[in-house]
Design goal:
Blueprint (H helix, E strand, L loop, with lengths): L1 E6 L2 E6 H13 L10 H15 L9 E5 L2 E7 L13 E7 L15
Parallel strand pairs: 2-5
Antiparallel strand pairs: 1-2, 3-4, 4-5
Helix pairs in contact: 1-2
């Protein structure tokens, strides 16, 4: 199941799996309002935060902060499938950070 958000002329969608993982993360935080809500209300709250956090113009490759430790990335629908059918919609994929960076344990990346 995917939820639709209409932005400009392109339709945005997000996988229910991403929403489920976001809710697990949010409900694990010590100070959260979604944990006390019925599941459907918490999910609607998350979708509202997601919608409010979208950039003014949405393009493939955009990344943005959604909520504590949750980041959205705009990609073509089916980006993870090699032979995905052509689809004009854009998909928001989420990444979730459970921990903040440990500033005493940074590793240099040589290039």
């Amino acid at each position: 199941m995917m939820f639709d958000i209409l932005v400009s002329k392109k339709q945005l969608v997000i996988s229910q799996t991403d929403i489920d993982e976001a809710m697990i993360h949010l409900n694990s935080l010590p100070h959260t309002i979604t944990k006390q809500m019925p599941k459907a209300w918490g999910q609607e709250q998350f979708i509202q935060w997601l919608t409010e956090s979208l950039p003014k113009t949405v393009n493939v490759g955009d990344s943005f902060s959604v909520a504590t430790g949750i980041y959205g990335h705009v990609l073509p629908v089916g980006y993870e499938y090699l032979n995905a059918p052509k689809d004009d919609r854009l998909q928001i994929a989420l990444s979730i950070r459970k921990w903040q960076a440990d500033m005493d344990r940074l590793v240099e990346i040589k290039r």
